Amino acid sequence: TEAVAALDDAASRAAGTSAGLDAVAGHVHALRIGGAFPALANEASALRQALSAMRYAVRIRGPRVTVLPYGDEEDASADVARTFAPFRGGAARDYRIRVSAPAEMNHVEGEILERVAALFPNVFGRLAALRGQGPDDASFVDPVLGAFDRDLRFYLRYLAYLEPVREAGLPTCYPEVDDPDGACVWRDGFDLVLAHALALEGKKAVVSDFSAAPAERAFIITGPNHGGKTTFARAVGQLHVLAALGCPVPGSEARLGAIGPVLTHFERAERAGEDARSRLEDELVRIRDILARATPECLVVINEMLAGTTLGDAARLGRRVMKRLAASGARYLWVTFIEDLAEAPGAVSLAAVSAGDLTPTFHVERRPPGGVAYALALARRHGLDPASLREVLET
Predict the structure, then answer these.
(1) Which residues have CB under 8 Å from 118's CB, separation 6+?
(2) What is the mean pLDDT of residues 76-98?
(3) What is the Cα 349 distance to its own chain's centre?
(4) By the 8 A CB rule, do 130 and 140 touch?
(5) Which of 144, 231, 332, 346 has the most CB atoms lying inside 10 A of its own CB?
(6) Weakest-pLDDT range from 34-43, 133-142, 158-167, 243-252
(7) What global pTM score does this model have?
(8) Pairing of strands 208-212, 184-189
(9) pLDDT averaged over every residue in the chain
């Protein structure tokens, strides 16, 4: 109750900073002056005084501990201190060990408390009624303020997470939200997790732009290894999730057509056991579940699906999935090496740019597939090209 009063006082001094905080401030003030809260505050204050006024005696005789009503008995602790006072030597070495008090009571303290409650049934009955009877009940906590507390903690930690990214010179902004059929514009966007890791190393992430006209719903991302295809798709997914949470998002400008569920299909490790499925079957089962949930408000992010079958079958299955996604109205990004999918009707082709030495650029542009994967260069880096393998086998 004191926290609510303090929040009300502080919120009144910060009026006009944001519509959301003003709404919370209005709720807090209405809660403080009306309803059952004033009576709750008065009862809490009265109970604190009643608990402070309780007096009882604890008699310890061997292993037996007895709790008794206080009857003006002499305080034996003072006698104990006086008895042992001559043995306290100021110059003697202190062999005591500092022990921090545990947060919970031990079994003896718990037993004593139960007997104290029996001595003062009226006070403890009022205490139980104030809190609620259930072991996990906290009915005195306003549900709106409980949710506000949790959200605020997350939000403040998120702002702290952004600090090194902003110090690295990367922009953040609040997104604008349009209707589900609206356009999508994202300027200077980046993968926040990657940018945070790079910022801690004193490096700066590369930014990319992304735009989608209202009618553009399908985006096929192709390009070479180490071009940043998956990083870009993941960044777009982060953009929508963070915007839905009301957080500042990476980028200098962000305008979204809708903020709905983000459905993702990424590779995962194969499972063992009786319920294990082949990689292809597992991928198809998961994409079936996504298709059943997809709506025009959704963003679907697919990464490297259908790699467990032949190129021809993957292309045919991919086109069937694209038709189902088109029927759902969802906007989707599909990272793939199957360049034929980028030529499907209605698809927008995005291609990742990579340097010839496999240096990742993490830059994605609107353009047709380049037909370059740099697979041999990647194999050469890891000693798996024909010349390296031949040298190992011959030795």
Answers:
(1) none
(2) 76
(3) 32
(4) yes
(5) 332
(6) 133-142
(7) 0.70
(8) antiparallel
(9) 84
Q: What is the reported pLDDT for 382?
A: 57
Distances (CA, A) of 370 to 214, 223, 250: 26, 7, 28
Q: How far apart are CA 72 and CA 22, in angstroms?
A: 55
Residues 6+ apart with CB under 8 A from 162: 172, 248
Asked whether the beta carbons of 28 and 145 are under 8 A apart, the reply is yes
Q: Which amino acid, 335?
A: V
What contacts 199, CB < 8 A, 6 or more positions away? 164, 165, 167, 168, 170, 205
Hey, how many other C-beta atoms are within 10 angstroms of the C-beta on 394? 6
In whole angstroms, what is the distance from residue 62 CA to residue 275 CA? 61
Sheet holding 184-189, edge to edge: 176-177, 253-256, 184-189, 208-212
Band of residue 174 on the pLDDT scale cut at 50, 70, 90: very high
Structure-token pair, residue 218: 């399908």
Cβ atoms < 10 Å from Cβ of 43: 17
Token look-up 């945070």 returns: 196
